[in-house]
Specification:
285 residues; alpha+beta; Diaminopimelate Epimerase, Chain A, domain 1; 2 domains; 18-stranded mixed beta sheet; 6 helices; 39% strand
């Protein structure tokens, strides 16, 4: 019987079952990409990760990240959740609170600061959504957007739309089949929407939809939040909190995700808490 160590980690929360879970296979060596994809489809979480020996000398470990349907070069909540898992398992020893993860997007710097795990995001590319596509976007959301919806590539590719207010985000009941068709047409992972949330303990409220990848709504999406920060920074709109702010996500799914963001010029960092909810082994054969 072949078994590997496994953890399921809740991310962007310090309370079990209130954030976004990621499945972390701590012993990914020897698994083929097909086996990894099959395991990710079985866990049926938004992402499943596999920890491997690094190929880059500067990295402490390598991570492969899979949705139920495809591999991603980078994703935010799997990065933070996997970092929590390898630290908890004693597989990585931070140097002055810092360590490095290798993934499809390159070698990323991570750190532990005041109870949060932070990752410096890959450099985002931002381009305006073709104006001819905006009616299709709004039809799929069943909601008007503010000007300049954009496409942000941070590994995953998100269409970012500002709905203006947290109330508009809260009340959204999108057409998932239409979102899947739209995102396939523009070659995006999904759609992330946001709106200002003054007075609610967070600067913005965020929701992310990726039905074409088997994730109708991602409970708390790291790469979606990074993409919102990149959109705000590059579009000339005001970044909340002078570049340091908190976002909330997941309320519609019974979660309470709290996402910390830092924007310093073109550099964006994502931070959050994480807690292990399940620990054991997977039987592979």
């Amino acid at each position: 019987m072949n078994t590997v160590r496994f953890k399921q980690v809740d991310v962007f929360t310090g309370t079990p079952f209130r954030g976004n879970p990621v499945a972390v296979v701590l012993e990914g060596e020897g698994l083929s990409a097909e086996e990894m994809q099959r395991i990710a489809g079985w866990t049926n979480l938004s992402e499943t990760t596999f920890v491997l020996q690094p190929s880059a000398p500067a990295a402490d470990y390598r991570l492969r990240i899979f949705t139920p349907r495809a591999e991603l070069p980078f994703a935010g909540h799997p990065t933070i959740g996997s970092a929590h898992a390898v630290l908890e398992a004693g597989m990585v020893k931070p140097r002055e609170g810092r360590f490095r993860q290798e993934c499809g997007a390159g070698v990323l710097e991570l750190s532990q600061e005041e109870g949060l795990i932070w990752v410096k995001a890959p450099t985002a590319s931002v381009s305006l959504l073709d104006a001819i596509r905006i009616p299709e976007l709004e039809k799929s959301l069943k909601k008007k957007t503010l000007p300049t919806p954009s496409i942000v590539n941070v590994g995953p590719v998100w269409v970012i739309a500002d709905l203006g207010s947290a109330d508009a985000v809260d009340g959204l009941v999108p057409d998932m089949a239409a979102i899947a068709r739209f995102t396939d047409a523009v070659q995006a992972t999904g759609i992330t929407v946001f709106g200002a949330a003054p007075g609610n303990g967070a600067a913005i409220h965020v929701r992310s939809f990726a039905p074409a990848h088997g994730v109708p709504e991602d409970p708390v999406c790291g790469s979606g939040n990074i993409s919102v920060a990149a959109y705000l920074s590059r579009s000339g709109k005001a970044v909340p909190g002078g570049g340091r702010y908190q976002a909330r996500q997941g309320m519609q799914l019974g979660r309470d995700g709290q996402v910390a963001m830092r924007v310093e010029g073109t550099e964006i960092s994502l931070g959050g808490e994480a807690v292990t909810c399940v620990e054991g082994t997977l039987r592979l054969r």
